[in-house]
Design goal:
Blueprint: H1 7-11, H2 22-37, H3 42-46, H4 56-75, H5 86-89, H6 114-132, H7 138-167, E1 192-195, E2 198-202, E3 218-222, E4 225-228, H8 234-242, H9 254-263, E5 271-273, E6 282-286, E7 289-292, H10 304-313, H11 321-329, E8 341-347, E9 373-377, E10 393-395, E11 404-405, E12 409-411
Parallel strand pairs: 8-11
Antiparallel strand pairs: 1-4, 2-3, 4-12, 5-6, 6-7, 8-9, 9-10
Helix pairs in contact: 2-7, 4-6, 4-7
Amino acid sequence: MPRPNPGVTAMLTLEEAPPITLARRWRQVRDRTEEIAASLSPEDQCVQSMPDASPAKWHRAHTTWFFEQFLLVPHSPDYRRFDPAFAYLFNSYYEQAGPRHARPYRGLLTRPSAEEVGAYRAHVDAAMERLLEQPVAAAVEELVELGLQHEQQHQELLITDLLHAFSFNPLRPALAPTWAEPPALSREEAAMRPLEGGIVRIGALHSGFAFDNERPCHDALVAPFRIGSQLVTNSEWCAFIADGGYRQPLLWMSEGWAAVQQNAWEAPMYWERAGEHHDGAWQQMTPGGLRPLDPAAPVRHVSWYEADAFARWAGKRLPTEEEWETAARRGQLADAGRFVWEWTGSAYRPYPGFRPPEGAVGEYNGKFMINTMVLRGGSLATPPGHARLTYRNFFHPDRRWQFTGLRLADEG
């Protein structure tokens, strides 16, 4: 189940991950998905709280379908599909892989059962383990690694989607009852750190795994800038609220202000007042259930619109993704990757020279490079070892259900 993940920070390095056999890595990743789902009831696994979220059993089945579709069917001649109908039910957005069940209606799939999805996973696991017992071509190894990285993304979504669903339950159930807020870093060294500009290298420099959107590595011109050494905290966000930040239209982009009005935003997602009349101290829905808000913890579950408005209120701005990566490479971001994915001021667009891979896997990232904003780092829900300095996460600017936060920047 989700747990504090202090090891992520150490993974935000330029070095490649320590060597491990592909078969062993396969087992570790697949087992972790089942560990996250282990305490969920069949009812828990079926719920879909909004179109952007997916049921837990769908995540378990979709990540299995990925290996079946892209590895076993084309590369294991003796393989037989567990159920041909699953190709329709559990395809997500791969047009070249065929038609699919509409995303907003995944919560209506009471069948197959969670138990049958478990049998599906076991069927595919057995076939994949047989495949990996034999020498395989480099292209197949690359596809397996892509599938494992894809499953790790869905492990994070399992946590965030369930947290969203549980937040609507009046009982405020805990996804992970033993979960504890990790200790915040000391604020004594928090400062706006100046960095020199110049021509910098951006993107995946090493030969290890990186998603296609992290390449090609390229030169970028960065002007001198300053960047916050630490993340914006809950206490700082409380000051923004107290100063009327959600009531001042001049702080907001036009679409952001419309989102504030339409959704009645008054605080980050999952914040609520304690007491019968909701006039007490702030509380926050967490993987451990409803907990008192930790003032020192980095703020999370804010949209890009909110992050941008806060930065403007603070007299600063969000860093570009080139600035963020430059600062991270120079060791200036003490808490990068530890708590929240960090909104940047950069639109999600292809790097110069980007070319998606051929075939259906080419739909993985490229076709989403519009109307979304880049986030960098990693979060409390990110699987250990999954984050990288060059990782480019992306969401629409109004989304809040992920572990998203911010740090500030300004001109040097």
